[in-house]
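Thread title: Can someone regenerate the structure for this chain?

I was given the following input by a collaborator and told the matching structure tokens would be attached. They weren't. Posting the sequence so someone can regenerate them.
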Amino acid sequence: MLAATCCLSAGALRPANIFSDHAVLQQDTTVNIWGFASPGKTVSVTPSWPGATAATAETGKDGRWDAQIATPKASYTPYQITIATPDSSLTLNDILLGEVWLASGQSNMEMPLRGFWTQPVEGARRAISTARRYPGIRMATVPKRGAYEPQSDVPTEWKTSTPANAWDFSALGYFFARHLNELIDTPVGIISCAYGGSKVEGWLPEDILDTYPGWDMEAERDSTLREWERIGVMYNAMLLPVTPYTVRGFLWNQGESNVGRHDEYPAHQADMVAHWRKLWGNDRIPFYFVELPGWDYSDPQGTDAALFRECQRLAAETIPDAGIVCTVDLVRPDELDDIHASMKEEIGERMALLAGAETYGIPGLPYTYPTFKSMEIKGYEAHLSFENADGGLSPNGPVEGFEVAGTDGVFHPAEAVIPLSQLGLTVKKPDRVDEIKAVRYCFRNFCIGQVHDMMGMPLKPFRTDKE
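Best answer:
Regenerated them for you:
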């Protein structure tokens, strides 16, 4: 049910719940830390790392205090942070310095390593059983809740990477952290802040929502909508309480609940990213997100989801410091009726490669995708050329997922071949098409990509009549 205003223990000194034992703080910067005490108190925050300088803050009338402390470079050495007033003190233990990412969205981000009912995560058994090998990985999970009024705190705490804890870690968040940890060899902290079924509008404030035609947060207050269908409420109850915990970047896996609204989604997503960056006081925070998964979406052969993926790629191109992970090949044939694709490790790896290249500047990482460049029509065949495919495509031979339309604009399945003798790909005209006017690839709600580059990165879905 929708949360009421957050209740605080009057006068008790404490940090916000997101600051607990085992936390990871962003390295080599100035981080925000806040909490609560009696109004008018002076609060000191003293880290234990070498050369640390204590910070002080005054509590306001609402009892909140805000401080900033400088952090050194990443380390696996556990530190302490002592928080004190003249009459009380407490200590946070086992604090690591590393890289912190906020992971948000809907159920494909929320989905834990243990999976959902009858819906498993591939590789979960090994990931859980070997979790202790990664002591530098920590996760704080924000519980699912909603509120129409802004909340000041939320019950959460940091957990270490152990078999007992990992069951409930966001699978995508964990696999991203694990692969990033292997790439940069520093601790990685993930704040998992996701709610299954939520729309992008659920993560926006009311003043922005009021500018959208057809979206009315005030009108729904007395409605019978389920919590996850509501707008603005995740923003108030889940995001704001952990704002602005200093992070390196945002991870986003959402869109299923906005399918059918591809015309407006890029603008709403851009508004969300800009607003989040404003909340965090940094207009260059990286924002990396995941392509919509293949699913039935009421009609496997429909194109609503394909149009949405196209709009996601548009958002990735137009939002500064953003990037998208293609997942067209990461779905099994038996997942037509399962929106929670099981291959979360591969998605996490691709997100880590994207971050490794774009955020951390690691040269040589294979993180790009073959992308449609041009089409040359010669009689009954169309030869397609691609960017990011200098080494050619695979597998050699026939591949599925291509369609051709003639002058009537109706698309039909077409034979496509990746030849050995030249770069690119050749598509042949189906008998039912008079002449080749347009080609599409994996432009359906449910279609499994078969074409890859030499590093196994999938060809992005496309349509030549749009590009």
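The mean pLDDT is 95.
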